[in-house]
């Protein structure tokens, strides 16, 4: 299934899609696969597989902690592709969340080729803007991959239009300015940003940064096409007594959030 099909399916059901993130390799590669599969079984529609990187610019302390552990355990880009392959085998779309440097080092064309071969649907590049590099978008197009770029409350209308024109699959709207992490309230600017983004594209718009519970998921699902949750899932793994408990906790949160995006 592609991300487009997942969003269409959610729309047909009168709800927003639920997008869940976890980094590959935490607590281990196999245990990250188990956690991602549990998320899907519990109601996550689209999975973001995080590619561990040593300089995560927009990631808050929760994700940084897990990513650092994954790197220290030796997680490689090849491992990330193995996680993608395992997720894709469930039928759910798997998109990689990665900063640009690891992809550039791997080689844009080589990564696009290998990600497509693993069954991946695309890549979210939080620190890459469409006008900053001329290698990624052509490589992704060649292999039929989604190119998901970010828009922010600070983005001008012109910048939003430029960004969405380069997107495929969906557009990622950040609800607040700052690093990732759960928040008591989702930024008030999110609804306005979604409206401004929709004025430039027919692609689905998913909102992330800060969502941690069903109430917030319901709030965002009222105006966005997708709800993205990351740090809250990672926190469940970090706080768990053991990997099995972490998988169970992640599944419980996914079920709660899946209920949230279905609230009318």
What does this structure look like?
By secondary structure, the protein is an alpha/beta fold. It has a single domain, classed as TIM Barrel. It has 12 helices and 9 strands. The chain has a 9-stranded parallel β-sheet with strand order 5-4-3-2-1-9-8-7-6. Helix 3 packs across helix 11. This is Tryptophan synthase alpha chain. Keywords: Amino-acid biosynthesis, Aromatic amino acid biosynthesis, Lyase, Tryptophan biosynthesis. Pathway: Amino-acid biosynthesis; L-tryptophan biosynthesis; L-tryptophan from chorismate: step 5/5. Tetramer of two alpha and two beta chains.
CATH topology grouping: TIM Barrel
CATH class: Alpha Beta
Number of folding domains?
1
CATH architecture: Alpha-Beta Barrel
Strand order, sheet with most strands: 5-4-3-2-1-9-8-7-6
Derived structural class: alpha/beta
Shape: globular
* Series of H and E elements: HEHEHHEHHEHEEHEHEHEHH
Largest beta sheet, briefly? Answer: 9 strands, parallel
Q: Any idea what the CATH superfamily is called?
A: Aldolase class I
First-last Cα distance: 26 Å
Poorly predicted runs of 5 or more residues:
177-183
Alpha carbon gyration radius: 17 Å
Proportion of residues in helical segments: 40-55%
Q: How many beta strands in the DSSP annotation?
A: 9
Strand content: 5-15%
Pathway: Amino-acid biosynthesis; L-tryptophan biosynthesis; L-tryptophan from chorismate: step 5/5
Function: The alpha subunit is responsible for the aldol cleavage of indoleglycerol phosphate to indole and glyceraldehyde 3-phosphate.
Catalytic activity: (1S,2R)-1-C-(indol-3-yl)glycerol 3-phosphate + L-serine = D-glyceraldehyde 3-phosphate + L-tryptophan + H2O
Subunit structure: Tetramer of two alpha and two beta chains.
């Amino acid at each position: 299934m592609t991300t487009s099909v997942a969003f269409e399916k959610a729309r047909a059901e009168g709800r927003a899609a639920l997008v869940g993130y976890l980094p590959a390799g935490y607590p281990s590669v196999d245990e990250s696969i188990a956690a991602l599969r549990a998320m899907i079984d519990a109601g996550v529609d689209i999975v973001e597989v995080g590619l561990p990187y040593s300089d995560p610019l927009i990631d808050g302390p929760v994700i940084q902690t897990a990513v650092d552990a994954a790197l220290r355990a030796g997680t490689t880009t090849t491992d990330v592709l193995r996680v993608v392959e395992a997720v894709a085998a469930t039928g759910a779309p798997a998109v990689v969340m990665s900063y640009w440097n690891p992809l550039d080092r791997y080689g844009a064309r080589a990564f696009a080729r290998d990600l497509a071969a693993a069954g991946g649907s695309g890549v979210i590049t939080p620190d890459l803007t469409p006008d900053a590099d001329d290698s990624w978008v052509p490589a992704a197009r060649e292999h039929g991959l989604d190119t998901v770029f970010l828009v922010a409350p600070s983005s001008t209308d012109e910048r939003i239009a430029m960004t969405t024109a380069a997107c495929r699959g969906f557009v990622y709207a950040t609800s607040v300015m700052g690093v990732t992490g759960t928040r008591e309230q989702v930024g008030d600017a999110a609804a306005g940003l979604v409206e401004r983004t929709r004025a430039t594209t027919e692609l689905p718009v998913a909102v992330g940064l800060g969502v941690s519970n069903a109430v917030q998921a319901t709030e965002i699902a009222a105006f966005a096409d997708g709800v993205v949750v990351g740090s809250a899932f990672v926190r469940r793994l970090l706080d768990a007594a053991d990997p099995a408990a972490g998988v169970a906790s992640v599944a419980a949160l996914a079920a709660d959030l899946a209920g949230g995006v279905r609230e009318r």
